[in-house]
Amino acid sequence: MATEPLIIEMPKRMDGAALSSMRKKVNEAFDSDASLIVFNFEKCDFMDSLGLSIIVSALKMSTKADKKLRLVYVGQEVRLLLQITRFDRICDIHDSMDSALAIA
Length: 104
Fold this sequence. Notes:
Layout: E1 6-9, E2 13-14, H1 16-31, E3 36-40, E4 46-47, H2 49-65, E5 68-72, H3 76-84, E6 92-94, H4 97-101
Parallel strand pairs: 1-3, 2-4, 3-5, 5-6
Helix pairs in contact: 1-2
Organism: Acanthopleuribacter pedis
Family: Belongs to the anti-sigma-factor antagonist family.
InterPro entries: Anti-sigma_ant (IPR003658), STAS_dom (IPR002645), STAS_dom_sf (IPR036513)
């Protein structure tokens, strides 16, 4: 039986400095019983290619583990990177936590 959704707070900067701790959090999330994992970007205002690699890994893990991955409160700068790389087409992006947590 699935547990409550698991929300991961993204750091202010998703870059090389955050890589190790974020990989650990993501791995723990996908090892949990949660069937829905939400990345909360509310405080994140920068993401580079190393930060994007976390998203790529999480997308792969979500498919493999049959879990849903959603992104919420993605700001303009991070959203631009997702658009340029076309990840906005494969990421489930929401503008509100209620929407991200909705069962679907």
